[in-house]
Amino acid sequence: MTEQYHAPTLNGFIARGGHERRPAVLVAAFEGWNDAGSAASDAVRRILDTSAPEHVATIGLDDYYDYQFTRPTSKLTERGREVQWPQTDIYRIAQPAADADLVVVLGVEPTFRWQGFCAQILQYAAAQNVRAALTLGALLADVPHTRPVPTSMSSDDPGLQEHFNITASGYSGPTGIPSVLGIELQRSGVPTMSLWAQLSHYVAQAPSPRVQLALVELLEELLPASIPAQQLREDAVAWKLGVDELAASDPDVSKYVQQLEEATDASELPEASGETIAREFERYLRRRGRYRTDGQGPDFEI
């Protein structure tokens, strides 16, 4: 009998140590500069939408936001017209069958006082016994929409590097609140990793179901969590077909996409090692087992 493959998870990483109190994994995403196509925040929002979260705290309001930069919105409700202010909320999701609960941080990148903003989140993380963290982001890049969504995982923590077989990010330059929060969590003793996905810059508008789906599938592997995504998969296929049609209708865009495809294919050739192919095949089998219930027909191609 072939031994079943078990992918490393953050819950499994936490389970290696004993804990007097129920531990938690923190997952964070923020709307704004780090959230191309709203893919990261929408992916994390799906965790909340498919669970019964307990609201822990709200951070933000007048202390951290410039309302001329991040405008509040008004909405007509049954109670009359209401103003929805930019803010960041913290939730806890119980996972009795798992080794750890989830603490979800979801909101808007602040305008002011980033260090104070992160310090508040760290206080709540300590109170919720957070023992590992994952920050998400999405960025615009010169990648074609016709190829698999590029994703990357990295961590500065040696334990997480060994557990997930990943390395530290080599990036240096301007950064956003997910990276700042991740650094502060790591400094406070919480092992932290980051997950990023790339969105084709010529289709930058939200929503971006294809990039969101790539993040959701990785979230399911890392936490693990069960996030119903059948409709999202169908939306991702429809989105790609729609972009295909738009690109085909404009010769200049079509030529540009072809150039991106050629550059992407050429750059990925050296990466087609046996280890890379095996890893991608294992991921395919896990997705196939998760989404194919009738045993017939191909999986969605996204």
Name its key features.
Proteasome_assmbl_chaperone_2, Rv2714-like, 9 strands, 9 helices, disordered C terminus, 302 residues, seven-stranded mixed sheet, ATP-grasp superfamily ATP-dependent carboligase, single chain, globular, PSMG2_sf, alpha/beta, two-stranded antiparallel ribbon
Q: Can you summarize this structure?
A:
This protein has 302 residues and is of the alpha/beta class. It has helices at residues 10-15, 39-49, 114-127, 158-164, 177-187, 209-222, 230-248, 251-268, 274-291, and strands at 24-31, 54-60, 73-77, 80-84, 87-93, 101-108, 130-141, 151-155, 192-200.
Structure description:
There is one protein chain. The chain is an alpha/beta fold. Helix content is 39%, strand content 22%. The chain has 9 helices and 9 strands. It has helices at 10-15, 39-49, 114-127, 158-164, 177-187, 209-222, 230-248, 251-268, 274-291; strands at residues 24-31, 54-60, 73-77, 80-84, 87-93, 101-108, 130-141, 151-155, 192-200. The strands form 2 sheets. It has a 7-stranded mixed beta sheet with strand order 2-5-6-1-7-9-8, with helices on both faces. Strands 3-4 form a two-stranded antiparallel sheet. Helix 2 crosses helix 6, helix 3 crosses helix 5 and helix 6 packs antiparallel against helix 7. The chain is globular. Residues 290-302 have low confidence and may be disordered. This is ATP-grasp superfamily ATP-dependent carboligase.
